[in-house]
Amino acid sequence: MLALEPAPPLLADLGPALEPESHASLNAPRYLHSAPGPAPKERPPPGTVLEIQSAPESPCSGAVKNPPREELPDITTFPPRLLAEQLTLMDVELFKKVVLYECLGSIWGQEKGNEHVASTVRATIAHFNRLTNCVTTSCLGDHSMRACDRARVVEHWIKVARECLSLNNFSTVHAIVSALCSKPIYRLHKTWAAVSSKSTKYLKELCEKDTAVKRDLLIKAGSFKVATQERNPQRAQMRLRRQKKGVVAFLGDFLTVLHRLDTAIPDDLNGNSNKRRKEVRVLQEMQLLQVAAMNHRLQPLDKFVTYFPRMEQLSDKESYKLSCQLEPESQ
């Protein structure tokens, strides 16, 4: 078992930490505003296995795949459940280390050139964006892949997203859904035509849940409703530990709320106590979710730990350019 870090200290006095330093604009709009578009037509995946398996053969006769770059195995060789657990483990490690005061809009939203500020927040953002890029790039593949090859990869990621949802990993669900509904992937009509109706149906359900499961619903549901109603912070954390239900929230939802508080409610000479109370409340909710995240008991798989950093990722421009080459608009 992984040695989990102790629960974060209670939010007793956030006075100095809540003093605004800057009202700069956000530096990571993609992370905060990557709302998925509509899911393609209609059509979850077959059962999953818990060990590495060889990638299934492409149903396209004559489809030839390029040798993997850097001798990396195909992403589909990792079973969906295993992928979901490994991605969840990465999210847990990042989310539980987030320093709460760094999430304030006046702290993490500072202009470029201050990358050293709010390092734990920026590390989580970087991982989210990297995962989204990796999903997009793996679905696009290269010119040697047929539409049905790409459809197989899309279906695999839909399976992974469903497994993440079962693990209450809302961060990875949002990353995968955002990638699959991004312009470079969404416009691939031939690819989506080869995706099973069952998988497309599951993607639509994921899009709906990804939109619905936001901060307010997450906090007010189930054990969190009980914990947030508990006035004693220590008892609230104890309640969550006893639940033994691991949860990984999407950090972007909280960053958006805190940024809006920072920009919508200006400070006066004596500060703004109402604004501070609202910010503290959001940070307390985040702290409870950090406790819940540590309820996950997962083990790292060395093969995936070395694999993920080496996954190819294209920029947004490169992805769209490749998408247009694979399926030109005229087609």
Automatic annotation (TrEMBL):
<dbReference type="InterPro" id="IPR001895">
    <property type="entry name" value="RASGEF_cat_dom"/>
</dbReference>
<feature type="region of interest" description="Disordered">
    <location>
        <begin position="1"/>
        <end position="74"/>
    </location>
</feature>
<dbReference type="Pfam" id="PF00617">
    <property type="entry name" value="RasGEF"/>
</dbReference>
<protein>
    <submittedName>
        <fullName>Ral guanine nucleotide dissociation stimulator like 4</fullName>
    </submittedName>
</protein>
<keyword id="KW-0344">Guanine-nucleotide releasing factor</keyword>
<dbReference type="GO" id="GO:0005886">
    <property type="term" value="C:plasma membrane"/>
</dbReference>
<dbReference type="GO" id="GO:0005085">
    <property type="term" value="F:guanyl-nucleotide exchange factor activity"/>
</dbReference>
<dbReference type="GO" id="GO:0007265">
    <property type="term" value="P:Ras protein signal transduction"/>
</dbReference>
<feature type="compositionally biased region" description="Low complexity">
    <location>
        <begin position="1"/>
        <end position="19"/>
    </location>
</feature>
<dbReference type="InterPro" id="IPR023578">
    <property type="entry name" value="Ras_GEF_dom_sf"/>
</dbReference>
<feature type="domain" description="Ras-GEF">
    <location>
        <begin position="79"/>
        <end position="329"/>
    </location>
</feature>
<dbReference type="InterPro" id="IPR036964">
    <property type="entry name" value="RASGEF_cat_dom_sf"/>
</dbReference>
<dbReference type="InterPro" id="IPR008937">
    <property type="entry name" value="Ras-like_GEF"/>
</dbReference>
